[in-house]
Amino acid sequence: MPNVIEITSFSAPELDVYARLTENQLVNRADPSNALFIAESPNVIDRALDAGCVPVSMLLERKHIEGQAKGIIARCGEIPIYTSTLDVLTQLTGFPLTRGVLCAMRRPALPKPEAICKNARRIAVLENIMNPTNLGAIFRSAAALNMDAVLLTPACTDALYRRCVRVSMGTVFQIPWTYLDMEWPEPGLSFLQGLGFQTAAMALRDDSVRVDDPALCRAEKLAIVLGTEGDGLCNTTIADCDFTVKIPMSHGVDSLNVAAASAVAFWQLGRMHQ
Fold first, then answer.
1. What is the pTM of this model?
2. Is-contact 97 60, C-beta < 8 A?
3. What b/e sequence results for 156-168 when a residue is b if at least 16 CB atoms lie within 10 Å of its CB, and e otherwise?
4. Greater confidence, 259 or 29?
């Protein structure tokens, strides 16, 4: 039987993870073995469980115990299932549980960059992407459009922030990813090139080649490098990459949002090696 606990007081410390702890507190850098993240919605929680993430507790509307969360609860063993009506949960949390189900989970240990690049032929490298919505959307495109892995530079936002996980629709648990454990752009770019990757900087420059350039098609292993919102890639990154690549645009439009640009680039460059 599930371990269902009716919420009568939201002051219980067990519920801090859902309403009072900040994202940075959840990361718990002082004690990584107890770091947590929040997965929201049944589909996202299922994907996290499929990836081996360990659940700690759940918070959901009472009606979902025998409804959309029934299968998830069955997979989670004897963890606490905190529940009440939607009105009570909204009052207690300060926000509506739009997906009805939240699950606190242990943060998995991240692999080394060498491990996720070992058999990859197309990878996305994200330089200093700070917006969780953009990061989540890029992960979703990377998973859907034939990227083998995603590498984040150290200044990127946390891929397991609640909003990023939600926007990604759980694809952060479906595609291999990790942070580069070295400075960027150097020695990071040299590391990738040492693994046999040609590097393609997505940037609008006079010397940029089109994203459908045949030279990109011929690249056996390609790392597609995308830059932060607004400023794009730093000049040193662009200078040190093997290619500078642009997406041709019309109607005088000078750029795309980084998430939109990633989808175009992944589609064109990923389908070459399906």
1. 0.92
2. yes
3. bbbbbbbbbbbbb
4. 259
